[in-house]
């Protein structure tokens, strides 16, 4: 099986909204396991030891199913295969690179040592060949100084308002965040968020999703009243419809969604677990803005991430 394939729907159109990626990169793992190095601070991770012998094949099938669903909705997908036994979290590429309008790519430093192997030159080469890339800014050397910023896991980016929302954790170093925001023209908005046991939320993208016309956020997990009020005020000021999520819904990955461009328009991708955690009123509010597409990925979710973590959005213009 080739390590990289491009799934391009004839009906796919370039995304007019800067919030919505025009395409996505997805990694299909052949030897999936949950990462023991990330379990300490990822309370969403439920599969730590005693891996099921079928997990590898089931995860492969789940990712293949996601590819099929994306294809059926006309989403432009770049699929890369990972046949390594040494990259347990490679299915979550949004943590190590991001792309930005104007031809900019960022590469990020990773907290877990074994995640640093996920960075792949073939993916960067593909971006340069298919899209107009003007510069690649590589922050990965900051790992040697103990500074980490795990991409669009650590940051939820409002590409329209130019705001980077970040909940504090060891995966979102404030110095690196400031450097990124200065270079890529975002304003950082930093807050603290934790679960009922006091565990810090490890990545911001499990807590909130920003789409073109709506925002979903587990605001009550921001325990400080003033921080929570400030965040909600900022989000409401964007004019987007605001949907607040409960902590239970967040634990079902209801905050880990991604708006993407399909062949017939924008779609909101979410997992089946996330969908079934929502109320009918919340679903109806979402569908006032755009259709929902759900995918079944329960084995992948045992590793502590969901569909948004699986998709690295492409915000670059294609070469002519």
UniProtKB/TrEMBL annotation:
Q: Which SUPFAM superfamilies match?
A: Pentein (SSF55909)
InterPro entries xref list: Amdntrnsf_FN0238
Q: Which domain of life is it from?
A: Bacteria
Q: What is this protein called?
A: Amidinotransferase
Keyword Transcription regulation in annotation: no
**Sorted alphabetically, which Gene3D superfamilies does this protein's record hold?**
L-arginine/glycine Amidinotransferase, Chain A (3.75.10.10)
User: Which keywords appear in this protein's UniProt record, sorted alphabetically?
Assistant: Transferase
Which species expresses this protein natively? Kiloniella litopenaei
- One Pfam family linked to the record: DDAH_eukar
Extract the GO molecular function terms from the UniProt entry: transferase activity
**Transmembrane in keyword set:** no
